[in-house]
Amino acid sequence: MADYDYDLFVIGAGSGGVRAARVSAAHGAKVAIAEDHQVGGTCVIRGCVPKKLLVYGAHFAEDLKDATRFGWQVPEDCAFDWPTLRDNVLAEVERLNGAYTNTLESHDVEIILERATVAGPHEVKLASGETKTAKYILVAVGARPHMPDIPGIEHAVSSNEMFHLDEMPKRALIAGGGYIANEFAGILHEFACEVTLVNRSDVILRQYDQSIRDRLLQLSMTKGIDFRFHCEIEKIEKNEDGSLHVTMPGHSDMDVDLVLFATGRVPNTENLGLDSANVELDDKGAITVDEYSKTSCDSIYAVGDVTNRVQLTPVAIREGQAFADTVFNDKPTTVDYDCIPSAVFSHPPMAGVGMTEGEARNTLGSIKVYTSDFRAMKNVLAERNERALYKMITDAETGKIVGLHMIGPDAPEILQAAAVAVKAGLTKADFDNVVALHPTMAEELVLLK
Fold first, then answer.
1. Between β-strands 244-247 and 235-238, what pairing exists: parallel, antiparallel or unpaired?
2. Cα dihedral sign for 61, 64, 69, 70?
3. Do 253 and 245 touch, CB atoms closer than 8 A?
4. Is residue 160 situated within a structural domain?
5. Which are the catalytic amino acids?
6. To 10 degrees, the CA torsion angle through 406, 409, 410, 415?
7. Is the domain of 215 the same as that of 318?
8. Which domain CATH number covers 395?
9. CATH code at 97?
């Protein structure tokens, strides 16, 4: 057996890389992990965790308005201070960075805080010029926001920079129709920012059920978020007062304070040295892997967003765990990508698991759909005319639930438990046999007609 510096060298200390490193070390492997930013990766440092904290902060805008109907005397001049929220969120990110670091160190994983690239099937090169060898290399470098090549793009920001803004903009233009675009549209709007969302097509959140995404569009427009469909940004110019002039062919120009691009993410494979080990990429630049996350090079594996399978943090963690169990615990393990629940932390949030109605009709042909369109009790007393929508899709012949989708307060929290039932293959009758937990919004799931 060849003599290597490590049994495993992980490039990238995000959710997938950290899990793989920690578990591999627990299985007895000598492990090192390299990271040129902060330990924790996109989700913890500049993604879902700080964004969810902004969502919580933004929701107080509606809660404070509703509070007066519940007897609370809220001052009319109740003001929001962006630097306070921003700094508190960044402090929490720093705490999590420390927690992830401590977890790795407690498992005797060596942390190397510099960029590493592949230099061969068993070799990595550090930014300092030093080289390290390993029996196995795991690439877990994730993805980055896509920024288009247009004039003035240097004046725009990606989701990475949204957590570090010096001040809250008064007017914002967001390009994109996915979850990042819609989540930041809701956040900025609640912070009293005039928000316009532009999208190349006329569909937002394409992967979600049409009824649910249409309800979000309706509620977002009612709240005051402006949408421009079949619209693209051609160029951005900076005005003398510091504002930005945005040109959009076929649409009127706009002057705004912030332009955010949320138009997808690109795997971080450029200049990573993968060609030195003949690691194959797909047409989008993502690393191609087999069911065990092995690349075209037998000693190199890859997990997470860099593989462009399912770009979700819990999936990357599952892939990291499966890799460690397969390679260092002699327990070949694959990840089941079927029936993965997902959510959009919009205002209100939406969530779904399984097939959409359209997918079910195309796949099964004969289906039965149950819905509940209602106003949450809290919204009734608050005189907030905002309705929730729950939708259950079943196989008409067996009654098996093949999809569950919802939009409304706490929808992601409710769906997580319900997703277990959908994954387990339960039927509509199984839900009907459960006594309702009253009064809750979740009880609608066992009362659907």
1. antiparallel
2. positive
3. yes
4. yes
5. 438
6. -10
7. no
8. 3.30.390.30
9. 3.50.50.60
Does residue 255 sit in the same domain as residue 294?
Answer: no
Do 135 and 209 fall within a single domain? no
- Provide the token pair at 350: 């939406």
Note whether residue 416 is domain-resident.
yes
Whether residues 18 and 120 fall in one domain: yes
**Torsions phi, psi for 292 (to 5 deg):** -105, 15
- Give which of 121, 332, 148, 308 is closest to 234, Cα–Cα: 148
Helix count and strand count (H, E) for the chain:
11, 21
At 270, the amino acid letter reads: E
Same domain, 108 and 246: no
Longest CA span, the chain: 74
Residue 378 sits in the same domain as residue 296:
no
Q: Is residue 339 part of a domain?
A: no
Q: Under 8 Å CB-to-CB from 70, ≥6 apart: which residues?
A: 381, 382
* The two structure tokens encoding residue 187: 């956040």
pTM across the whole model: 0.95
Distance CA 206, CA 209 (A): 8
Tell me whether residue 228 is in a domain.
yes
- Give the tokens for residue 420: 């277990």
Beta bridge partners of 32: 9, 110
**Total count of domains within the chain:** 3
Provide the domain limits for residue 15: 6-144+266-328
Tens place of pLDDT for every residue, the chain, 449 residues?
A: 469 999 999 999 999 999 999 999 999 999 999 999 899 988 999 999 999 999 999 999 999 999 999 999 999 888 999 999 999 999 999 999 999 999 999 999 999 999 999 999 999 999 999 999 999 999 999 999 999 999 999 999 999 999 999 999 999 999 999 999 999 999 999 999 999 999 999 999 999 999 999 999 999 999 999 999 999 999 999 999 999 999 999 999 999 999 999 999 999 999 999 999 999 999 999 999 999 999 999 999 999 999 989 999 999 999 999 999 999 999 999 999 999 999 999 999 999 999 999 999 999 989 999 999 999 999 999 999 999 999 999 999 999 999 999 999 999 999 999 999 999 999 999 999 999 999 999 999 999 99
Same domain, 35 and 179: no
Residues 128 and 36 in one domain: yes
Domain end: 328, 359, 382, which one? 328
CA distance 172 to 155: 13
